[in-house]
């Protein structure tokens, strides 16, 4: 509960740092615990302060403003504790419910099949996915507080691509429909009455119902001289309780669609995806979703709801014909900055990213320090990389080559005066700020060398992309389109096994491939079970869903030894989230050493060319972990 306010956006940077220090003090933590126990014991009388809670609007990187509320630290921790406990309870109970609902699908397939893998993913990765697991699991509490929604959305992106490619092989002459949806002003529009009805239906006691109602009816103001107003609709932002109530409301949608159509909604909070080869089922699901939204007082965002019919490769369809469906949403299906085409591929349109590039260019131009400029550049590049879709095996070389082209366009657009070179401007800025310190030309490697290793720490995204591209080119990946040959081989093996079993009347190991009269299935019947019984199809399905690993370079002994120093310093300043990305970080460091190590060695005669004791590690850590204040508009924009 203490970790959550630190990790999410409910507190400003000052109070986050204060709470971070306080949680390390055992006496302070014990005092918090005592205060929480008092608040919980007095639950029936708890309420917001009479003076109200001030709302402050903050801007994120993509230009959206969200309102956060300045609660005192104790209240934030108390509400987080309550919210997490109820989240654990509901997630456990609703998981049990899904196991009952999903049983008919699991029972009709082999445990080594694609269908069984789907069932497991639906239960473990998507059903109520954004609620935390386990009361005593610090890892899960941290995951909830830092809920990497983007990581979960990435899994959906890979899954859609896999299902499209699988469908093209299994049903080459049939179209496949994908729908994406988003709720308009979802959390601010949630009805308090609907939440109360839902909770009461779930058997929540009156004392908790009254508490939750007081929580929802938060007294708020935005300016100090304003009258305090009570919230009549919507939920307070960045609270686990708010997130829980929102999840429960959309859970009703998931359940309604699943029970009536057998279509599973792949949902990450209010980002919704579903797909099927049967258009009539898709249309029915969309109709029921709108019906549910109307009943609960919600509304779908027409601008963010889209559908795309993936056409068989042997059918040439006019683009205009794809939007003639009067039932499904007419906009494009988008993920991040990618748009789904009727061919089944996601692509990036240059015009989609130009507004972001214009903003990036303005901010870089107005950066007042070298480190601020580097930090801004790195943040934007990381943002684009996430929204272009990290490469998974299913995306192949086409996707990574497309991303490389887009990044080349990005650099040409941002740094047009230097022919797309991000480095050229930096030496000029350094000369302007430190004219007496720079006598020789700065080597290129220093700009990319890590901050913790005495460099400037500029991100070279092409090292990431090149390593993934090289892996894909070197790895002979087996795709769905290559499995027909293996089908014939496996069928022949099972047929031999059947003949042997028939002699001894021992059919247990192959009974799934036999008729009730103990005759062996035909080859056509065998391949009809690709999704439900064939393990070699499941193996490829699973492989295609995996993120493509980096191809690591071969390092000399001196560089291998220095890599350990890199790691030690990176770990010293890493947050828990960065630890989870350690593998990617290691690969990037290896490529830095491989590509720039010799240049650093020849220029400075040593890879560690500044005493680490002279490095402001604390300042570097703070700079890397503190979010950029996107509310500070540039002077030109003012």
Largest sheet: 4 strands, mixed
Tally the helices.
24
Strand arrangement, largest sheet? 2-1-4-5
Helix percentage: 40-55%
Instruction: Tell me, briefly, the overall form.
Output: globular
Blueprint (SSEs and pairs):
Blueprint: H1 3-7, H2 13-23, H3 26-41, E1 53-59, E2 65-69, H4 73-107, H5 114-126, H6 138-145, H7 149-170, E3 176-182, H8 192-201, H9 206-216, E4 219-221, E5 229-230, H10 240-261, E6 266-268, E7 271-276, H11 279-296, E8 306-310, E9 334-335, E10 338-340, E11 346-347, H12 350-366, H13 370-388, H14 396-414, H15 425-433, H16 444-448, H17 461-474, H18 483-504, H19 523-527, H20 535-545, H21 557-572, H22 576-580, H23 582-604, H24 617-625
Helix pairs in contact: 4-5, 4-10, 8-9, 10-11, 12-13, 12-14, 14-17, 21-23
Structure in words:
It is a single chain. This protein has 638 residues and is an alpha+beta fold. The longest helix is centred in the first third of the chain and has 35 residues, at 73-107. It has helices at 3-7, 13-23, 26-41, 73-107, 114-126, 138-145, 149-170, 192-201, 206-216, 240-261, 279-296, 350-366, 370-388, 396-414, 425-433, 444-448, 461-474, 483-504, 523-527, 535-545, 557-572, 576-580, 582-604, 617-625; strands spanning 53-59, 65-69, 176-182, 219-221, 229-230, 266-268, 271-276, 306-310, 334-335, 338-340, 346-347. Mean pLDDT is 85; it is low at 136-147, 571-580 and 633-638. The chain is globular, with a radius of gyration of 28 Å. Strand 1 and strand 2 form a beta hairpin. Among the domains are: 175-187 and 243-347, Reverse transcriptase/Diguanylate cyclase domain (Alpha-Beta Plaits), CATH 3.30.70.270; 350-476 and 552-625, no CATH class; 480-545, no CATH class. It contains 24 helices and 11 strands. Strands 2-1-4-5 form a 4-stranded mixed sheet, with no helix packed on it. The protein has a 4-stranded antiparallel sheet with strand order 6-7-3-8, with helices on both faces.
């Amino acid at each position: 509960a203490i970790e959550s306010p630190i990790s999410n956006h409910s507190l400003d940077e000052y109070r986050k740092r204060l709470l971070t220090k306080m949680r390390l003090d055992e006496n302070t933590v014990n005092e918090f615990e005592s205060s929480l126990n008092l608040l919980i014991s007095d639950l029936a009388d708890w309420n917001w302060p009479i003076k109200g809670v001030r709302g402050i609007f903050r801007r994120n990187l993509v230009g959206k403003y969200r309102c956060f509320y300045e609660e005192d630290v104790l209240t934030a921790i108390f509400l987080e504790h309550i919210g997490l406990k109820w989240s654990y309870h509901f997630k456990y109970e609703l998981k049990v419910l899904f196991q009952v609902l999903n049983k008919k699908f699991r029972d009709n397939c082999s445990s080594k099949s694609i269908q069984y893998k789907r069932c497991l993913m639906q239960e473990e990765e998507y059903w109520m996915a954004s609620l935390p697991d386990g009361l005593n699991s610090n890892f899960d509490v941290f995951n909830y507080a830092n809920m990497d929604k983007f990581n979960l959305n990435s899994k959906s992106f890979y899954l859609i691509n896999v299902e499209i490619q699988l469908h093209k092989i299994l049903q080459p002459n049939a179209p496949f429909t994908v729908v994406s949806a988003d709720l308009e002003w979802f959390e601010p529009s949630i009805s308090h009455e609907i939440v109360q009805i839902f909770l009461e239906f779930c058997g929540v006691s009156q004392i908790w119902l009254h508490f939750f109602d007081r929580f929802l009816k938060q007294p708020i103001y935005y300016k100090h001289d304003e009258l305090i107003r009570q919230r009549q609709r919507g939920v307070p932002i960045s609270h686990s309780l708010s997130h829980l109530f929102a999840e429960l409301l959309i859970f009703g949608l998931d359940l309604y669609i699943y029970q009536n159509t057998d279509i599973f909604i792949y949902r990450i909070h209010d980002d919704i995806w579903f797909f099927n080869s049967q258009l009539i089922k898709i249309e029915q699901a969309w109709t029921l979703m709108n019906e549910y939204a109307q009943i609960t007082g919600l509304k779908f965002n027409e601008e963010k709801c889209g559908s795309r019919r993936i056409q068989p490769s042997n059918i040439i369809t006019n683009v205009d014909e794809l939007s003639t469906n009067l039932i499904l949403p007419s906009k494009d299906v988008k993920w991040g900055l990618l748009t789904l085409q009727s061919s089944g591929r996601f692509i990036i349109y240059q015009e989609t990213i130009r507004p972001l590039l214009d903003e990036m260019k303005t901010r870089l131009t107005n950066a007042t320090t070298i480190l601020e400029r580097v930090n801004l550049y790195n943040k934007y590049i990381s943002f684009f990389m996430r929204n272009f879709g990290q490469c998974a095996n299913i995306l192949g070389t086409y996707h990574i080559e497309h991303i490389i082209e887009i990044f080349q366009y990005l650099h040409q657009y941002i740094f047009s005066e230097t022919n797309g070179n991000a480095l050229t401007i930096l030496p000029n800025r350094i000369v302007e700020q430190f004219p007496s310190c720079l006598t020789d030309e700065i080597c290129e490697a220093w700009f990319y060398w890590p901050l913790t290793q005495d460099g400037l720490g500029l991100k070279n995204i092409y090292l990431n992309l090149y390593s993934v591209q090289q892996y894909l080119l070197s790895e002979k990946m087996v795709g769905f389109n290559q499995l027909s040959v293996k089908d014939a081989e496996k069928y022949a093996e099972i047929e031999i096994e059947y003949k042997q079993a028939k002699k001894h009347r021992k059919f247990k190991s192959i009974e799934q491939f036999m008729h009730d009269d103990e005759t062996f299935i035909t080859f056509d019947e065998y391949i009809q079970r690709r999704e439900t019984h064939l393990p070699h199809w499941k193996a490829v399905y699973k492989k295609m869903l995996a993120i493509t690993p980096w191809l690591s370079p071969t390092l000399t002994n001196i560089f291998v030894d220095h890599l350990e120093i890199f790691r030690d310093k990176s770990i010293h300043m890493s947050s828990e989230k960065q630890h989870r990305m350690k593998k990617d970080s290691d690969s990037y460091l290896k490529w830095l050493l491989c590509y720039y190590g010799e240049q650093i060695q020849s220029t400075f005669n040593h890879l560690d060319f500044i005493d680490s004791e002279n490095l402001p590690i604390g300042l570097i850590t703070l700079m890397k972990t503190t979010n950029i204040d996107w509310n500070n508009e540039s002077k030109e924009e003012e």
